[in-house]
Amino acid sequence: MNFKMWFKKFTSSQNGLSIIEIIGSIAIISIVLVTFATMSQIYLKTDIKQDHKTDALQVAEKILNELRNNNDFETNGEFEMNKTEYSYKINIDSIDLRNIGEGYKLNLTGSDSSTEVTMFTFLYNNSTQIATVNVSWEE
User: Fold this and answer.
1) pLDDT class of 14 with cuts at 50, 70, 90
2) Within a domain: residue 96?
3) Are 122 and 129 contacting, i.e. CB atoms less than 8 angstroms apart?
4) Which UniProt keywords apply (predicted)?
5) Segments forming the whole domain that contains residue 60
6) Does residue 82 sit within a domain?
7) Fewest beta carbons within 10 Å, which of 36, 59, 84, 89?
8) Residue 6 within any structural domain of the chain
9) How confident is the model at residue 69 (pLDDT cuts 50, 70, 90)?
10) In Å, what is the CA distance from 111 to each residue of 16, 46, 121?
11) Residues contacting 12, CB < 8 A, separation 6+
12) Handedness of CA 70, 98, 135, 42 (dihedral sign)
């Protein structure tokens, strides 16, 4: 009897799974489940951070709309939205749009990983002004 015939007879007579095959299957399934769980947590954290940024942009837009309508707003304060406390700071500076040159820069802070957003608008009361609203929050 050669090796091929012996191997064929041995493998065809096997009726069930060996313990090594079962352990290997469980290990592979465990690795896949852990990978999906980790990815879900990362996506959930990213989603929550984006929700906070969206809420902060809504807070800034609400404040800027009030300023555009010539309503007074405290320059520093807090605003609650969706169970999160947002702190804001308003800065209003006069600006002459006719004399804006290469030397004038508007610096807006923030990045994808920051916990603050900044928005600005022009106000046209007696003179032209630029209103900058910085909204931040704790994670």
Assistant:
1) low
2) yes
3) yes
4) Membrane, Transmembrane, Transmembrane helix
5) 18-137
6) yes
7) 36
8) no
9) confident
10) 57, 14, 20
11) none
12) positive
